[in-house]
Amino acid sequence: MSNAQNAAAPRTLVLYHFRSCPFCIMVHRKIEQLGLDIEQRNIREEPAYRQELIQGGGKQQVPCLHITESDGQEHWLYESSDINRYLEQHYG
Ligand SMILES: N[C@@H](CCC(=O)N[C@@H](CS)C(=O)NCC(=O)O)C(=O)O
User: Domains in the chain, ordered, with CATH?
Assistant: First the structure.
């Protein structure tokens, strides 16, 4: 399994999700297909993660990929199709 947070791709990725969300499942499939190791934060199991998502991203919608670039810039990427496109472009 390749690590999405390694030196070749110097950015940190965190996926906010919950288990029964069909859009999250589509992103999980892409992560699995690409063999990525991405930290996942379940907002239904941990209220602090839900708060992080709302405060950082601006809304309580999953899936959301939190991207922290090596220079510290942060992006909160919503929409399963946009997340999958991003993962494919950077790690496919
Ligand atoms: N178009 C979005 C739809 C995402 C969506 O509807 N997610 C639901 C969960 S399946 C959600 O977060 N709803 C808001 C909520 O549960 O508070 C996508 O493809 O990611």
Answer: 11-91 (3.40.30.10)
